[in-house]
Structure formats: C-alpha cells, structure tokens
Design a protein that fits this description.
- This protein is α/β, with parallel strands linked by helices and 271 residues long.
- It folds into two domains: 211 residues, Vaccinia Virus protein VP39 (Rossmann fold), CATH 3.40.50; 47 residues, no CATH class.
- Helices cover 53% and strands 14% of the residues.
- The protein is built from ten helices and seven strands.
- A hairpin with an 8-residue loop joins strand 6 and strand 7.
- The N and C termini lie far apart (64 Å).
- It binds S-adenosylmethionine.
- S-adenosylmethionine (SAM) binds next to helix 3 and strand 2.
- S-adenosylmethionine binds next to helix 3 and strand 2.
Length: 271
C-alpha cells in the first residue's frame, strides 16, 4: 500500500484537468489538504482504510463527493464497485464523476445532486457501506446516520465517517447507544472512523433520545454568551452605577486608540 500515490497519480491529475485545473480552496479531501492540489501522504492511514473497505464491499453510498478523490481510492482498489454519490455542489462532482466513469468502465457510478437529507429519503435501496463525508456539522451527521439507518434493510450497518474530530459528541452517542461490533480509527491527520453497528429498535430509540439532550446542551451553550453579557451589565450597574459606567464608556470610546477598548466604551455608554 506504500504505492497508493503511484496507483492514483495519473487519475488524480486527470480529475484536476477534468475540473478545469481548479479546486475549492480550503475544502479538503482524502487526497488533498485543501490548500494545494498536491497528494497529501499524511492521510495515508485513512486512505488505506478506505482502500481496504472498498475491497470488502461492492455497493457503496457516499455523502460528499467533491472531486471524487475518495471514489478514486475506492475504484483503484475495486474497479467493479457500484457507487452512489450525493453532493449539493454542482461545480466539481459532476465533472469528476464523468471522468471516473470514463476511466473505470467496469464500475457503476451514479451521482445525485442536492441536499443529502432530501435525497436520502428518495433512495429505496440499501448499501454494503455508507461513507459520510458531506456537511461536517454534528447535527447534520446525526440526521444523515438516521437517514442511512432508515433505508438500510439489514440488522448490521457499516458506516465510515470522515474527519471524525468534528463529530466528537455524535461519536460518543454512537458508542453509548449502539452495540458496535467493530471499529477502526487510524492515527493520522483528519482521521476517519469505521464502525459496524448492530441495529435494533431499542438502540435507535436511545440514540434519538440522547441526541435530544445533546441538542438541548448546544442550545443552552449558544444562549450562554447572551446571559453572561446580561449578568456582567447588571453587576457593573450595581457596583459602579449607570452614571459612572457612562463616564468610563465615553472616556474609552473617545480617548483610546484601541478598537476593542473603543467598542467596550460604546457598550458602557449604552449600558
Ligand atoms: C470534504 S468534501 C468531500 C470529499 C470527498 N469525499 C473526497 O474525499 O474526495 C465535502 C463535500 O460535501 C458536500 N456537501 C456539503 N453539504 C452537503 C449536503 N448537505 N448534502 C450533500 N453534500 C454536501 C460539499 O459540496 C463537498 O463537496
């Protein structure tokens, strides 16, 4: 597997050309860090995991196609794969998929454009492996997991998540709600996580319930700054009084040069 770079090299450049020699700055993939269009070997361990999973499975659903780099790894490993890709962005995925279709003629690739959750509802077949690598917000990932579970017909579901550091809360919920039969988390940057989950009604309910509390936690945290500010204002009013606050505020906003102090001054003036 040291040769992965060599194996994908030609098609990695082919995709770039097919995409008009452009990539979306700051959007990373399994092969690039999002800053340069250059193969990133720091992700070799997670690339390897994807490569091996592609050998063990034949029908895969991928949420988040972008330039088709993860699909390129999978097809390099198993050129006969059937892959359905979902992506909301029309700029890169269609061009990349067209290129891959022409290159891997034994494969069966299908791209569905639009929001993952809307389109997952329309799919009425299940897959051997689900690769979740789209919108990385935890709430979205949680909903995507439930949507994949919904369309999956078997008692065990295999999911690969990318960039798992961005979904720590959801990862904890997965492990506390379900029986995880197998899990792999390679040690590298932007690591991915592979899980084989035993499905039953009780665990799914537990997952849904725990997520409700997670949402509540996020809601309270999002409100916290508002109440902290309110509390600080109250303390200042009690201990300094409104008049002194306004005098200090006027001094800070007019006599200081620092933008932050001027901003604080304006806030004190309007306390
Ligand atoms: C990190 S990139 C995927 C990288 C790709 N799997 C790879 O390694 O080559 C994330 C992709 O998810 C797509 N995406 C973001 N939100 C989405 C949504 N709600 N539904 C479908 N795709 C979405 C973005 O357009 C982007 O192309």
């Amino acid at each position: 597997m040291q040769n992965l770079e060599r194996k994908i090299k030609k098609n990695f450049q082919g995709i770039y050309k097919a995409c008009g020699n452009k990539f979306y700055l700051s959007c990373g993939s399994y092969l690039i860090d999002g800053q340069n269009y250059k193969y990133d070997k720091r992700m070799l361990k997670k690339q390897n995991l994807l490569y091996h999973l592609a050998k063990e499975n034949s029908k895969i659903l991928e949420i988040g196609v972008y330039m088709g780099h993860s699909i390129l790894i999978m097809l390099t490993s198993n050129p006969k794969l059937k892959i359905t890709g979902l992506d909301i962005d029309k700029r890169f995925a269609p061009k990349a998929i067209n290129y891959l279709k022409k290159t891997f003629t034994d494969s069966k690739l299908n791209l569905i454009l639009g929001d993952s959750l809307k389109n997952l509802k329309k799919i009425n077949t299940d897959y051997d492996l689900y690769h979740i690598d789209g919108d990385h917000r935890p709430i979205k990932i949680y909903k995507e997991i439930l949507a994949c579970i919904e369309l999956h017909k078997k008692k065990k579901i295999k999911i690969l998540f990318d960039d798992v550091e961005m979904m720590k809360d959801v990862e904890k919920l997965l492990f506390s709600s379900f029986e995880i039969k197998r899990s792999i988390k390679p040690k590298c940057i932007f690591r991915n996580l592979y899980v084989e989950i035993e499905l039953n009604e009780k665990s799914i309910k537990k997952f849904k319930r725990s997520f409700f509390f997670l949402l509540l936690k996020h809601f309270i945290i999002s409100l916290a700054p508002f109440y902290v500010k309110k509390f600080c204002r109250l303390i200042l009013k009690i201990f300094l009084g409104e008049k002194i606050c306004k005098i200090i505020g006027s001094f800070l906003s007019k006599k200081t040069k620092s933008n932050n102090l001027q901003k604080l001054g304006r806030k004190l003036e309007n306390i």
